[in-house]
Amino acid sequence: MSKKDYESLKRKNAKSSNTPDGALKSRNALISAKKLETVVAILLGITTLLSAWAAWIGTLHSGIQSINFTKSNNMASEGSAEYNLGLQLYLSDYTTWNVISEYYGELEAAKADGNQTKIKLINEKIEKFKKQNVSQTLAEGLEWMEENNEDNPFNMPEMTEKYFGSAQKKVDLSRELLEEGKRDNTKGDSYQLVTVMFSLTLFLLGIVGTFKNMPNRLAVLGISVVVLVFAVIYMCTIPLPTGFSKMNFFEFNK
After folding, report:
1. 140 vs 127: CA distance, rounded Å
2. Contacts of 154 (CB under 8 A, 6+ apart)
3. How far is the C-alpha of 208 from the C-alpha of 202, rounded, in Å?
4. How big is the chain by its Cα radius of gyration, in Å?
5. pLDDT tens, 104-116?
């Protein structure tokens, strides 16, 4: 065999041996692309579900926020009305006490004169006036005053709370509902932010296939995964709505 024939045969063998390797590399690249598409599809499905969940929970927070704000406003109105009513009762009782105090002064003067008839008439007038004008709260104060030898029923401990205690409780409850509404508003905004991050993840996953080079695809996929993981971790730190339970969330609004 001549040298020229030997070189020609060598080139044919090399070409035949390289063809299977090239086909194998092409086949491996095709499998990698398919695997990548499968991963992207799975991540798209997971992200879509998580985005829907975050949007729903955020809507629940917004609804509870509106309810709490409405309740707070109503409770504040009721507290204001009860405060005005308590103030009117307080002023009325104080006026009543001033009249009774004058009667007591007349009674003491009659006792000093020793006029039994006048004493009896004044006592009857005091009792009749009490029955017609003394409220339950003032009656408790008068009883406390007599038992403790005091000269003013309004010196009784917690006397003021008897007039304004109920109103103050409603005002305090109104403030608590307002603060709860503010917290729900913050939580709802946080879930909206999570929804935005999930939308960003969906966008990144959607453009993975537009890149021709595998390294570029993997880089975009990696960024989307990082955003997805961060969004999930952040979402787990946000409290669920008040009264929400995983066992009864289908009946949450019942």
Report:
1. 15
2. 94, 97, 141
3. 10
4. 42
5. 888 888 888 887 8
Interatomic CA distance for residues 56 and 62, integer angstroms: 10
CA angle (58, 64, 68) in 5-degree steps: 145
- At 76, the amino acid letter reads A
Residue 127, classed as helix, strand or coil, is helix
Q: Can you read off the two tokens belonging to residue 83?
A: 């405060």
Tell me the C-alpha distance between 95 and 58, whole Å.
55
Query: What are the b/e assignments for 33-46, b being 16+ CB within 10 Å?
Result: eeebeeebeebbee
CB crowding 114-138: b at 16 or more within 10 Å, else e = eeeeebeebeeebeeeeeeebeebb
Both tokens of 22, joined, read 């090239």
Classify residue 158 as exposed, middle or buried by CB count within 10 Å of its CB (0-12, 13-18, 19+): exposed
DSSP string, 160-218: HHHHHHHHHHHHHHHHHHHHHHHHHHHHHHHHHHHHHHHHHHHHHHHTGGG--SHHHHH
* pLDDT of res. 208: 86
Check residue 63 and give its pLDDT: 86
Average pLDDT in the chain: 82
Distance CA 40, CA 21 (A): 29
Would you give the end-to-end CA distance of the chain in angstroms?
95
Residue 193: count of CB within 10 angstroms of its CB? 16
Tell me the CB-side half-sphere exposure of residue 187, using CA atoms within 13 A: 23
Degrees (nearest 5) of the Cα angle 50, 51, 55? 115
Query: If residue 60 lies in a helix (H) or strand (E), which one and from where to where?
Result: helix 3-113
